[in-house]
Specification:
about 70% helix, mainly alpha, flat
Length: about 80
């Protein structure tokens, strides 16, 4: 029983380290690449990706707002 506890702890630690996300790139501000210029196509792709992420956030906001309004209306009508 005393040997089982460290084995389980080591297993959890090994699984945690195996499943931990690894950074595949470094931030440009922290590396030597900050002095190098970024290719215009990469900048354009980055802005496009940011716009897509913003659109997805707004598209997720609509169903949440609709459910919120529906719940509010149900609560208001049940109180009367």
């Amino acid at each position: 029983m005393t040997l089982l506890r460290p084995v389980i702890a080591a297993l959890f630690l090994a699984c945690g380290l195996a499943l931990a996300p690894v950074a595949t790139y470094a931030e440009p501000g922290n590396t030597v690449q900050a002095t190098e210029s970024v290719h215009p196509a990469i900048e354009q792709a980055n802005t496009h990706r940011a716009k897509e992420a913003r659109r997805k956030r707004y598209l997720l906001f609509f169903p949440i707002a609709a459910v919120g309004v529906t719940v509010a209306l149900i609560v208001i009508t049940r109180r009367k």
